[in-house]
Amino acid sequence: MPSEGKSDLERVGVFQEMGYISVGDKYTPFIYRPFNESAHKNKQMQTSGPKRKSGLQAGYFDTQFKRIFEREALNDPVKLNRLYRIQQSKKNIGKAFLPTNGEKRPSGVGSYYGTISGPMEAMSVQQVPRKPYKSPGKNLYTNPSKKGSGYGYPNITLSKLELYSPDPYDRAKELLKREMTNHKTMLKGGQFRLNLHPKDYFDHNPFKLDKSLPPAKRTDERKHHFAVPFKPSSPSKTIGGMKGGTFDTYPSHSADPYVTRKAKTLATNKEGKTFRPSPGPKSTPVKSIITVNVNKMVNATNYNTNTIPSVMAY
Questions:
Q1: What span, in angstroms and rounded, lies between the C-alpha atoms of 137 and 141?
Q2: β-sheet bridge partners, residue 274
Q3: What is the mean pLDDT of the chain?
Q4: CA distance 165 to 174
Q5: Cα(112)–Cα(107) distance, rounded to whole angstroms?
Q6: pTM greater than the 0.70 cutoff
């Protein structure tokens, strides 16, 4: 148990904390550790500055430009097009067709220039005899169409306008009422009642009254026990600093004597130290289930082979 500080049981939860695996080197803080020792020792790899892209091979990895196709033939599309036209012209039989003359356009109204038939001889001015004109007669006369869409415009359609026929709103109700009055006048006597009609009770209900009860008597005059109504002497008072709304007066102050408090004595042991109860159970570091299963399943005999079983049970 250490002379100063908490015990291992209080700190970690075990009786004694075992030593850690170490060579015995002293701990060096993180700020004093070099980040990369090999970066500032011996010679380092040095590169030239970045090169920009240009027409030379200076900005590329290869020293010589490599073509995509090696030793391919150069094709001139203009030359190929001319050779194709020469081959097509050899297939023509004779010379190219040329029209004799271009088309001729007339010079004006009444001109025959450019026509196939040429000028025509003048015709006789004498009129041909015809039959006298006979009038075909008058057409069928009808009245002009009437204007209107047909909705709300009378006398537009072929048929005549229908006359208004009244239709009262409560016609069905009035007919039913008339039939009921005629039916009641034809009845003789009262309603037919059957004595064998089922009832709620086996015997006649003695509490049921055939006649209606007389109206209840109401007495408008109300008698009071007191001739004069009760009125409080004054309204209620609110409780304030002076205790004006209470039944009793403000109580007089009673001075309490000063009493010294005794200091509490602490329980000590034989050595004179303060007694402290033993602490409760502490949590201990526990290895995970996966780590335990790996240590059980993977060992020195099957580490380099392919016969390692499944780590987990599922």
A1: 12
A2: 268
A3: 77
A4: 18
A5: 8
A6: no
